[in-house]
Amino acid sequence: MTDKIKKAARHTNQNEGLIFEKSSPGKRAFELPPLDVADADPAKALGSSYRRDGVEGFPEVSEIEVIRHFTRLSTWNYAIDLGMYPLGSCTMKYNPRVNEFVARLDGIATEHPYQPQELSQGCLKILRLLEQCLLEITGMDSITLQPAAGAQGEMTGLLLIRAYHEKSGNPRKKVLIPDSAHGTNPATAVIAGYEVENIKSESHGQIDVDKLRDLVTPDVAALMITNPSTLGIFEERIPEIAEILHSKGALLYMDGANMNALTGITRPGDLGVDVMHLNLHKTFSTPHGGGGPGAGPVAMKKILEPFRPVPILVEKEVGRLALEQIRPDSIGRVKAFSGNFGVLVRALAYILAYGPGVRQATEDAVLNANYIRKHLEGVFDLPYSLPSMHEVVFSDALQKKNGVNTMDIAKRLIDYGFHPYTTAFPLIVPGALMIEPTESESREECDLFIDAMRSIAREAATNPELVKTAPHSTRVRRLDEVGAARKPVLRWKSPVSRTEAADQPENRLSVRSE
Amino acid sequence: MAYPANYRYTKEHEWVDVKGDIAAIGITDYAQHELGDVVFVELPKAGSKIEAGKTFGTVESVKAVSDIYAPASGEVIEANGDLQNTPEKINTDPHVAGWLIKVRLANPAEISGLMDTAAYEAYIASQSKEASA
Amino acid sequence: MRYLPKSPAERQEMLAAIGEKSIDDLFSSIPDRYRLRKSLNLPGPLSETEIIDFFKARAAENSGGYTSFLGAGVYNHLRSVVTDAMIQRGEFLTSYTPYQAEITQGTLQAIFEFQTLMCQLTGQEVANASMYDGSTATTEAVLMAERLTGRRRILVARSVHPEYRDVLKTYAKNSGLHVEEIGHATNGTLDQRALQAALKDDVAALVVQSPNFFGVIESLAPLADTAHSSGALLVVAITEGVSLGLVRPPTEADIVAMEAQSFGLAPSYGGPFAGVIASRDKFVRQMPGRLAGQTTDSEGRRGFVLTLATREQHIRREKATSNICTNQALCALAATVHLTLLGKEGLREMAHQNLSKAQFALAELEKIPGIRRAFEAPFFNEFTIELPRSVKLVNAYLLREKIIGPFVLGTAYPELTKHALVCVTETTARTEIERFAAVLRRVLEQPV
Q1: Band of residue C175 on the pLDDT scale cut at 50, 70, 90
Q2: B residues 92-131 near A, CB within 8 Å?
Q3: Of A295, A325, A356, which closes a domain?
Q4: A22 belongs to a structural domain
Q5: Which residues span the domain enclosing A32?
Q6: Chain A interface mutation, best of B32, B34, B62, highest count of A Cβ atoms under 10 Å
Q7: CATH code reported for the domain at C67-78+344-445
Q8: Count of helix runs (H) and strand runs (E) in chain A
Q9: Cα–Cα distance, B58 to A484 (Å, whole number)
Q10: Residue of B nearest to A511 (CA)
């Protein structure tokens, strides 16, 4: 097995238990400077609210144990810093380190959102410049930086749409969503108070524009489109789609998760999109950090500007910026304070690094995806043959014949030193392999990936068991997800807890289980 | 696994076992196979009413949650308490020990509209053909 | 460009391998009319040094050199350098959501530890792996209560953070929830008579914050009893988690929505922070957000996986408990490292210093003629004072002395015209507290 695997090799790594298992009373890791005022008497100050015994079960360890604990844990993770993530629609690109540095500067990391605005002009200038850059990139008229992530951006976008329709007297009832959409789309539409109507993609995986005409009734508030689609294919008829919607008074929402294929090449605003969100943790390089934080700014056309969430960034006089809290038609606030500022700083640093040259990143991303597609066509089934942009979707149809499915192939890819691609999404491709290399991958890394995938395809044909029982080289083998869901264990419990019994309230509220 | 001869079946892969005006309801072997290992079940309490064609609960696996549709209307007499601790019975014995609820039928005639064993077996055969086409 | 690992020659070779002549040809599916013919008008490109200079220049235009007495939902606390040393490791920083458990056990175990710490802090049975922040966590907790009870009326204490209430209103408008506010009693806690009057059996939840926005610690047991007697759930929001080092955890709550910013996250002009929802085991299937669960692998080793994922958007889609996908994982990790560093005694000591300094500050301020404590109920590290004149004007004066004064409560509570919310933490030096008091005394001695 190992002579075929060039990217990774086995390596001894450290075991590490839970931090609570290393805990022992009396150990300290961080000491505070001495108190410079008189000691308060907490029993007197807090009365019956006093927590006499401190937090039960809280760890007590030394500094070196903390360092070893988390360092060891970190060595069990795959990361972009180690190699490629071919995850479709995630855009796992390099997270530039200068972004981390500037986000931590004194005067950037230290600012309180309620400090006087005259002492926050630096922060406000950062927000203003980022707004301007994102408007230039998207071709839209107005923007909010408040949403904390893509899903929250989607919600904000739909609330803007609702407010717009309500202002005309009729909020309308439905949102049309393609069956290829990311799960956050329908989940969000429901939270925004709309019914979801799923629309079937046509034979090329695109939106069926001819059928669309009939589907857009006066009840339809909007269509949520992802462009390029989750198949990585550009929706060529998007201007027509926009026109159909607009003619019926409906709006076009674009999920901007795939902006990495469009930045510097075309602009959603020019294509007829009315409102869209961006994922700064995808296209704009802010780190995933194991699942977040991100940011999901929402850019919109003028017609939606009055409804933007507060606070709104305005220029009062030349060179003086302010955040305004009152806007009569605003949908309100979607998050406390003004957004994930630290993430916004990182995104701006990324844009400044590229400047107008950001187009080249898009070109390299599309080049990498097509290079990989070319070398795996024929090895894996390609269900939709239209040109790919920044990602390509194969299926496991050829390998299924030997009982090997996309999940198995993905797990075997781990043995070759890569993170799996996106499995089983989009839903319209059964057994999907969704691959997006991003521009951060060198030719060498792409070639290693192609070699690995070809090798696995051969294994699927000649030694399917090897693939079906993968991964073989990881710290843990496949984990029992069924057991985890049947009998969830979601926290560590100290072996003996005398307060546990005492803390159970007598009267538990009985609620329905549905 | 064989499909019991005296049961009736729905297009949503539920089975019904009628004795007088009491019906036991569950999901079929085909359904449990599609779902994968069951981890959790949500069922209505005794005394609640179910309505033909509407959902009355869910069966959850690691990768999906399936709504269960009432094949007929009636009042729930009992929900299978075993499933709380051993939901896997739905996988190992979907047609007997994995029963979900027992219902007093409001209109026993509704059952005659459901598929019999032969019809159901033909139905799932055509579904499988479609899937692998 | 330094982030692009390709030479011009390699690009040409790759194009040739695909059989295309130019990069432009790869974009042929985009109609000509919509292809940009010139470059975007963006600032840059900047070298690494220039980027740093740009942000340093912005930093210099902010509040450097000022002492602040602001809290109001964002708190200055000590942070160890060890926290950044850990979260800056590339294997944490640049790792993806742990859907592939075999190669993300580091993230998953850390999440499991976070969930445990949150349960220990709040006295609840289960906690999730984070929500965006305290404001959205509170809103999601309310939506959870709605799902659990099937009811649509929500009672919220007015002493819950104003921005948290704003966020709740935005979400409630579109979910058919009806939100009503309950005022405060003279001692600063929730007005229990108003609560009794408003409570009927159509209320899904009572939402309170403790310590509340006035700094006051609520007495939760009677509120829980009252809410439960009508079949409503008690949701408790916590904006200052350090209080839990000395203040009883809200075990009476059915759902706790906590902001974890106080646990090692820099103020960073309002974000990114991390919200947490903690609740009872029996409510776990209605809880939004990711959950890491313990399990074993095929060879019997302990490991961790994301679990109960069928609640989430990527499976349940329109029936999901929430639309949340990306959360605040790295922030939660920072909180985990921070709390591990502090440990049991460190957190207690930090809380003790907060309490002591706040008591000291109040005593100093009460010596000033015209200043009085507004609310008698116990407080932790924030308290409300009433001044004899406009807080805004007083703050303008303080600013000239390089002091960022307390939060002007009148902006959020029009009836509290001369009230200010003072926050003091372990980072506020005694000398600065004394200086603040001295300047304040001087301001108030001046004629109006």
Answers
A1: confident
A2: none
A3: A356
A4: yes
A5: 2-74
A6: B62
A7: 3.90.1150.10
A8: 17, 12
A9: 19
A10: B45
| pTM of the predicted model as reported, rounded to 2 decimal places | 0.93
Of B40, B45, B62, the CB nearest to A481: B62
Is A95 inside any structural domain? no
Q: Give the closest-approach CA distance of C382 to chain A in angstroms.
A: 13
Rounded to a whole number of angstroms, the distance from the CA of C194 to the nearest CA of chain A is 22
Torsion angle of C-alpha atoms A110, A113, A118, A124, degrees rounded to 10: 90
B65-69 and B55-61 beta bridge pairing = antiparallel
- CATH number of the domain where residue A190 is located: 3.40.640.10
* Residues of chain C neighbouring B63 (CB-CB closer than 8 A): 310, 315
pLDDT at B62: 83
| Angstrom distances, CA of residue A292 to CA of A286, A310, C331 | 9, 24, 8
Distance, in Å, from the CA atom of C128 to the CA atom of C172, rounded to the nearest integer, reads 22
Contact residues, chain C, for A340 at CB < 8 Å: 132, 271-272
- From chain A, which residues contact B within 8 Å (Cβ)? 481-482, 485-486, 513-514
Digit-coded pLDDT (tens) for C329-361: 999 999 999 999 999 999 999 999 999 999 999
Domains and CATH numbers, chain B: 8-132 (2.40.50.100)
For domain C81-338, the CATH class is alpha beta
By Cβ distance, the residue of B39, B42, B44 closest to A485 is B39
Q: Which residues of B touch C310 (CB under 8 A)?
A: 60-65
ipTM here: 0.96
The pLDDT of residue C327: 75
Q: Are residues A343 and A400 in the same domain?
A: no
Average pLDDT over residues A205-221: 93
**pLDDT at residue A287, as a whole number:** 96
When divided into structural domains, chain A yields a total of: 3
Residue A259 counted as domain residue: yes
Encoded tokens for C73 = 């939902």
Average pLDDT, chain A: 92
Do A30 and A153 sit in the same domain of this protein? no
Residue A508 pLDDT class (50, 70, 90 cuts): very low
- Considering only CB atoms, which chain B residues are within 8 Å of C316? 65
**Contacting residues of B for A513, CB less than 8 Å apart:** 42, 45
- Residue A514 has a pLDDT of 26
Measure the CA–CA gap between C79 and C339, rounded to whole angstroms. 10
Q: Which helix (H) or strand (E) holds A351?
A: helix A341-354
Dump pLDDT digits (tens) for A301-314. 999 999 999 999 99
Nearest CA in chain A to C319: A187
Across the interface, of B39, B45, B57, the residue whose CB is closest to A482 is B39
pLDDT band at C373 (very low <50, low <70, confident <90, very high): very high
Query: CA C270, CA A336: separation in Å to the nearest integer?
Result: 8
Question: Are the Cβ atoms of A74 and C150 closer than 8 angstroms?
Answer: no
Per residue in C37-74, pLDDT tens? 999 999 999 999 999 999 999 999 999 999 999 999 99
- Tell which residue, A92, A175, A414, has the closest CA to residue C101: A414
Do A105 and A202 share a structural domain?
A: yes
**Chain C residue whose CA is closest to A194:** C174
CB atoms within 10 A of CB C176: 9
Out of A485, A486, A513, whose CB is closest to B42?
A513
C96: confidence class by pLDDT, cuts 50, 70, 90 = very high
- Using the 3D structure, point to which of A356, A387, A419 is the last residue of a domain: A356
User: A288 and A363: one domain?
Assistant: no
pLDDT digits (tens, 9 = 90+) for A174-192: 999 998 888 778 888 888 8
Boundaries of every domain in chain C: 67-78+344-445, 81-338
**Quick check: helix, strand or coil at residue C355?**
helix
User: For position C138, what pLDDT does the model report?
Assistant: 97
CB C161 within 8 A of CB C181: no
A313 plus A223 within the same structural domain: yes
Query: What's the mean pLDDT in A123-146?
Result: 98
Q: Is the residue at A502 inside a domain? A: no
Please confirm whether the linkage preceding A311 is cis (ω < 30° from 0): yes
Confidence of residue C319 (pLDDT cuts 50, 70, 90): low
